[in-house]
Amino acid sequence: MPENKRIILMYITEISGHHSATLAVEKAIRSINPRAEILNINAFNYTNPISEKVINRLYMSVIKRTPQIWEYLYDNPVVAQNLEGIKEAIHKFNSNKLQKLFDNFRPDVVACTQAFPCGMVADYKKTTGSILPLVAILTDYIPHSYWIYDTVNAFVSPAEEVSARLIQKGVDPEKINTLGIPFDNKFNNFIDKTQVRRALGLDPSVFTILIMGGGQGLGPIKKIVKSLEKTSKPVQEIIVTGTNKKIYKSLKHKVKDSGKKIKLLGYANNVNELMSASDIIITKPGGITTAEALAKKLPIIIIKPIPGQEANNTAYLTAMGAAIKLDFPQDINLVIDDLISNPAKLSGLRQAVMRISKPNASMDTAKLLLNLSNV
């Protein structure tokens, strides 16, 4: 019988790719070792429950109103150096809570899908001399400086290009595992396109576009929908607005007046089915959504990515030939018409998607954590 391993998975923010990644890894671990004890926790909420709400609101406000500030802060070595003292003070303040958590749960390994808890545990290890294995699971195609700590035992990298950049930043190549971004294994399951389109009330034979704005329904979704009304080719749409009730209500009235078939949804738990029903996805380039789309062999269109992780994810995807970047949502109808008129171009995108997809990321990450728990 497998040993009763204890594993802590850490993320921040409930509705986020970081959380989706820990859930995917947890599911994979349980499929390998059903007896494993897993604590999947929001590290920010655990250590700083009041600060979490304030910082999340501040982050969303910056992203929506002044994204250039986030661009300046993101992976800026000067900023990172200036924040070093503040960061160390926060980590020291949280050290007692971590000590209590580790003493009570006695984990065999800790894995983090976001840099804040990774740094917190890394500094805890440095201060206390702990030999607890720590794994950094990167969920975007950029290894920013806030991930880099000597006391991290292993890095899970999304792609070979990211691994090369980690090495450039001084990470020991022996610590790097190029496994991909973890996502729920259900996205690897085959789902009949025709069947799911019928179930959604859509035409099985019409080119289908999936429009998403992440879990929080961000991005120029309304402008995209407006532009798609002008396509000269027949198309139908699946729109997912996430937790954004305001945009859902706004689109609900517009959808009724549309000359196209549109399936409008709020927060969806069946994104794997929606991706299976689609020919292309227009989305924010979050790491998890990207990994899921790649697994579903879906070409990606990205409109006005925000600076920071989205811009870097976009740069990687477009360089690999798996995505198209647009700066103006009003031009989306022209891009769609062009792709439908040029099947070879659409096929080229799909082939690129298949080349960079890493469908076994969650299972491979789970195996890594279980192996490290034996150390």
Explain what this protein looks like in three dimensions.
By secondary structure, the chain is an alpha/beta fold. The chain has 2 domains: 6-181 and 359-372, Rossmann fold (3-Layer(aba) Sandwich); 189-356, Rossmann fold (3-Layer(aba) Sandwich), CATH 3.40.50. The chain has 17 helices and 12 strands. The protein has helices at residues 17-32, 43-47, 49-65, 67-73, 77-82, 84-105, 115-128, 160-168, 193-199, 221-228, 245-257, 271-276, 287-295, 309-319, 332-341, 343-356, 361-372; strands at 6-11, 37-42, 109-112, 134-137, 154-157, 176-178, 207-212, 235-240, 262-265, 280-282, 300-303, 323-326. Strand 7 (207-212), helix 10 and strand 8 (235-240) form a beta-alpha-beta unit. The two termini are 18 Å apart.
Could you state the order of secondary-structure elements as H and E? EHEHHHHHEHEEHEHEHEHEHEHEHEHHH
**CATH architecture assignment of the largest domain:** 3-Layer(aba) Sandwich
The CATH topology of the largest domain corresponds to: Rossmann fold
Shape: elongated
Biggest beta sheet attributes: 6 strands, parallel
Structure summary, number of beta strands:
12
Structural class, by secondary structure, is alpha/beta
Question: What's the arrangement of secondary structure elements?
Answer:
Blueprint (H helix, E strand, L loop, with lengths): L5 E6 L5 H16 L4 E6 H5 L1 H17 L1 H7 L3 H6 L1 H22 L3 E4 L2 H14 L5 E4 L16 E4 L2 H9 L7 E3 L14 H7 L7 E6 L8 H8 L6 E6 L4 H13 L4 E4 L5 H6 L3 E3 L4 H9 L4 E4 L5 H11 L3 E4 L5 H10 L1 H14 L4 H12 L3
Parallel strand pairs: 1-2, 1-3, 3-4, 4-5, 5-6, 7-8, 7-10, 8-9, 10-11, 11-12
Helix pairs in contact: 1-17, 3-4, 6-7
